[in-house]
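Hello support,

Our group uses your service weekly, and this is the first time we've seen a run hang past the timeout. The protein is Nuclear nucleic acid-binding protein C1D. I'm not sure whether the cause is the sequence or the server load. Input pasted verbatim:
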Amino acid sequence: MDPDFEELSHDTEIIAKIKQLRDVTLRIEDTMKLATHPEIYEKLSNTDKIQYNLLMSYCLNSMFWMYLRTEGIDPTKHRIKMENDRLKKCMTHAKQINDRNLPIRRLNKDAAQRFIRNGLWEMKNKT
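Update from on-call engineer: The timeout came from a worker crash unrelated to the input. Re-ran successfully.
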């Protein structure tokens, strides 16, 4: 194969990846612009504000992760890895708190006993 063709093919792949990164970055930027309106934030409940803040932090860290990758830096050996792990723990903790606050359905023992007793009832023999 011609060496110039290999370089051209390699350059085309790089250009395609750069365009893809640019498109993803622009989509994330548009989403961040929509999501950062103060009117929207003020209308959220406290639980939703916590989830919103965690999501925004995670998005920003992900953007920085991508930036490090484009600079040729291994993000798994950078402090951003610890920050992402911390955010994941916070997300898990927030979910546990949210799940704990959900109303727990209690069993009404008296009603359950009536259902069982009536379901097992048999008619007496007619004499």
